[in-house]
Please model this.
Amino acid sequence: MSDSARINELGAHAGASVTVRGWVTHLRSSGKVAFIVLRDGTGILQTVLVKNQVPPDVWERFAELTQETCLAVTGEVKADARAPGGYELGLTNVEIIGTSPLDYPIQPKEHGVDFLLDNRHFWLRTPRQVAIMRIRNEIEMAIHDFFYQRDFLRVDTPILTAAIGERSGLFSTEYFEEGNAYLAQTGQLYGEAAAAAFGKIYTFGPTFRAEKSKTRRHLTEFWMIEPEVAFADTHDNMRLQEDFVSFLVQRVVERRKDELKELERDITKLEHISAPFPRIDYTDAVATLQKKGSSVQWGDDLGAEDEALLVEDYDRPIFIMNYPKEAKAFYMKENPDDPRTVLCNDCLAPEGYGEIIGGSQREDDYDKILHRIREEKLPEDAYDWYLALRKYGTFPHSGFGLGLERTVAWICGVQHIRECIPFPRMMHRLRP
RNA sequence: UCCCGAGUAGCUCAGGUGGUAGAGCAGGUGACUGUUAAUCACCCUGUCGGGGGUUCGAGUCCCUCCUCGGGAGCCA
Model:
């Protein structure tokens, strides 16, 4: 009787007979020796079938195999330098669990992006995608660890909301007698309410933006992590951000070396990511950009090109802080040192990955935030409960939102965030 | 929404100046006792994105629509 094992555990079974279940990725034969390469989500295993060492019916089963046939194979685990992973299986039995027709779409070769996205349900089986998803999972677990260690409470905020949040596009759906409900673009406003109840909180959930964006940095559905901290000012906020981002990067570098190697990520660019991150005031950034030949004027929001010009001088993420209030959301606190600006910051990742965090100290003055809501012509009645937070025991507080897929893309060094979520939702893609 | 680029075999692509479509991979058959996206021989594969136009003749030139990619804006 053989024990069963997953491929990455086989080293512990050297010399023993083991059963492995997985799917065929490659088949090779040279007459009387055949190789079946399997994957099981933990690794790749080469198995060897020798004609005169197995019963005829087992040998003949090789001819029935196709790519992605699901198998249970049994054999002796042997260390062999010629096998990927260092171990191979000398087969004594091959059992077919599920057959696979010849027209399986993903081949061991280059494919185009559109084709791969149409076949995302199969694309996920490939080694590169497995590596990305394991790193995504590592980052998700590290996020929870980081906040748990700091005694933050995780708060789950609603996905169906009344019109509230950011200015950009909303997805709507009918909601009984209440008119339209909108898919949440942010959990922040609920996070602020929770910060007054629990002190330090974070949200971790999906958010939705009906923006007609077609770039490598945008999804219509993405996951966002939004801490909110009572009694934290904008400087506390940035310190939390740089500690947080550094923690995530170092966790992946420590625990996911194999996956980073699979992705051919240059680890030296990650190893030195640590606090503090450079802080650049918006006003200074504009001056720097003008010196570099940009046409930005004070008051403009910074474009993608401007951001790239600023990041290129640094080997770690940078903060751009205190933007003009016209360029930013209504809930950001006015800067007492320069009332044209607000106490906010973006965090830009290096190597061209751009904005991964937007954060701010929140406006805690009732009259000022009401004034801003009216200035922006936002639906005042939808914000009644949010305004009430400033009426009953208002408190200084700050928070930020980190885009999970953008962070995964940067740490993995992949070009497009569509590879950083299992089933991406984009402007023209709703399936699979 | 705007600006570029692309759409040819199941997949990845090549097809100067218009003359009736081709390569690799995949697939099929066979050979091979250590292969690594195995190798070798032979075989199969097409609504050239849709529609319209110019022409004796259009994958190729013109118009139009659709789809995809990249970027901008917006943002995380």
Q: What stands out?
A: The CA atoms of residues 15 and 148 of chain A lie 43 Å apart. Residues 120-420 of chain A form a domain with the BirA Bifunctional Protein; domain 2 fold (CATH 3.30.930.10). The mean pLDDT of chain A is 90.
